């Protein structure tokens, strides 16, 4: 992998939460390859350091900041460190997210504490990211925010996944509302809604479904790099009217 000083994101500062693994990690590598200075924020310190080290080894610029997106003080510190290190924040990608434990719970058996944990990470985490980055973006007179929602936030198909579906549905409409609120400040806000993506998050579920899944379904499992490519487009300059969009990346599942 070679890094270009003249890539699509040369000189831009990009903060990605949950970038120690899966989709966020692939995104960090992709932004770095295009010349961005990337801040790797993850509650898991070691994976974050690993992603940053890999980018640096390949000639890119990255900074790992251990961050729990549910803690206001962590997220404030993240934005401060990013701004200090790279002179501003051009892109924030609120990507950290989790499934419930256990993943599937009948509604009457919903563990309320676990429901609250999922909502805090998947929804409050997005709020805190936006709350803490917007003052800097307003000062700059521009910015881009991307939120990772899910197909499960657009449709009711994920039976037994109440907390996850509700949290991602809320991220969808928070994204739309923020596009309206922040449009006058030249801040674009979009969300991606992936279907199934091959990451550690759903590795167990994919393994359980292997064999039971028709080949055509299996083909729709995306690679994290394919999700990252869409996010790069959402973050790119020259896409001015692209805001308030929920971009499905699901192999056409939601189109049926
Ligand atoms: N994999 C899929 O099929 C799929 C589909 C649709 C949406 N998504 C969403 O994509 C996003 C990324 O998921 P992934 O599949 O790459 O999962 P992943 O488990 O590989 O990565 C998620 C990362 O988020 C981090 N994280 C968890 N809690 C955190 C917290 N409190 N603060 C900061 N970081 C935290 C984890 O440490 C991990 O590194 C999530 O929001 C997920 O809901 C995934």
Description:
The termini are far apart. The longest helix has 29 residues, at 112-140. Helix 1 runs parallel beside helix 2 (45-57) and helix 3 runs parallel beside helix 4 (112-140). The model has no long low-confidence stretch (mean pLDDT 94). This protein has one domain (13-250): NAD(P)-binding Rossmann-like Domain (Rossmann fold), CATH 3.40.50.720. The protein has eight helices and seven strands; from the N terminus they run E-H-E-H-E-H-E-H-E-H-E-H-H-H-E. A seven-stranded parallel β-sheet has the order 3-2-1-4-5-6-7, sandwiched between helices. With 256 residues, it is of the alpha/beta class. It is globular. Nicotinamide-adenine-dinucleotide is lined by residues 17-18, 20-24, 42-44, 47, 67-70, 95-98, 121, 148, 150, 194, 196-197, 199-202.
Brief rundown of the structure:
The chain has 256 residues and is of the alpha/beta class.
Secondary structure layout:
Blueprint: E1 13-17, H1 22-33, E2 37-42, H2 45-57, E3 61-66, H3 72-86, E4 91-94, H4 112-140, E5 143-148, H5 162-182, E6 187-194, H6 203-209, H7 215-219, H8 224-235, E7 246-249
Helix pairs in contact: 1-2, 1-8, 3-4, 4-5
Nicotinamide-adenine-dinucleotide binds near residues 20, 67, 97 and 121.
Which key features would you list for this structure?
Rossmann fold; 256 residues; 7-stranded parallel β-sheet; alpha/beta
Distance between the termini: 38 Å
CATH A-level architecture: 3-Layer(aba) Sandwich
Q: CATH topology, which one? A: Rossmann fold
Bound small molecules, which ones? nicotinamide-adenine-dinucleotide
The CATH superfamily appears as: NAD(P)-binding Rossmann-like Domain
Strand order of the largest sheet: 3-2-1-4-5-6-7
CATH class: Alpha Beta
What order do the helices and strands follow?
Answer: EHEHEHEHEHEHHHE
How much strand? Answer: 15-25%
Tally of discrete structural domains: 1
Provide the low-confidence segments as ranges. none
pLDDT average, as an integer?
94
Question: Helical content, roughly?
Answer: 40-55%
């Amino acid at each position: 992998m070679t890094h270009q000083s003249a890539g699509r994101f040369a000189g831009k500062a990009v903060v990605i939460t949950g970038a120690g693994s899966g989709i966020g990690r692939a995104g960090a590598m992709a932004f770095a390859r295009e010349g961005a200075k990337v801040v790797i924020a993850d509650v898991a310190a070691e994976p974050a350091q690993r992603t940053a080290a890999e980018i640096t080894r390949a000639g890119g610029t990255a900074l790992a900041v251990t961050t729990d997106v549910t803690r206001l003080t962590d997220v404030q510190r993240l934005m401060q460190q990013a701004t200090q290190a790279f002179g501003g924040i051009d892109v924030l990608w609120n990507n950290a997210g989790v499934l419930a434990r256990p993943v599937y719970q009948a509604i009457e058996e919903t563990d309320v504490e676990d429901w609250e944990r999922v909502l805090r990470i998947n929804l409050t985490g997005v709020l805190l990211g936006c709350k803490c980055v917007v003052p800097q973006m307003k000062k700059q007179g521009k910015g881009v925010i991307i939120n990772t929602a899910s197909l499960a936030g657009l449709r009711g198909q994920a039976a037994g996944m109440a907390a996850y579906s509700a949290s991602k549905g809320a991220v969808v409409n928070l994204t739309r509302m923020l596009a309206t609120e922040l449009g006058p400040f030249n801040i674009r806000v979009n969300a991606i809604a992936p279907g199934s993506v091959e990451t550690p998050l759903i590795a167990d579920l994919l393994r359980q479904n292997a064999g039971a899944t028709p080949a055509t379904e299996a083909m729709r499992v995306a690679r994290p790099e394919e999700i990252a490519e869409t996010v790069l487009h959402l973050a790119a300059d020259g896409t001015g009217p692209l805001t308030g969009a929920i971009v499905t990346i699901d192999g056409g599942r939601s189109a049926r």
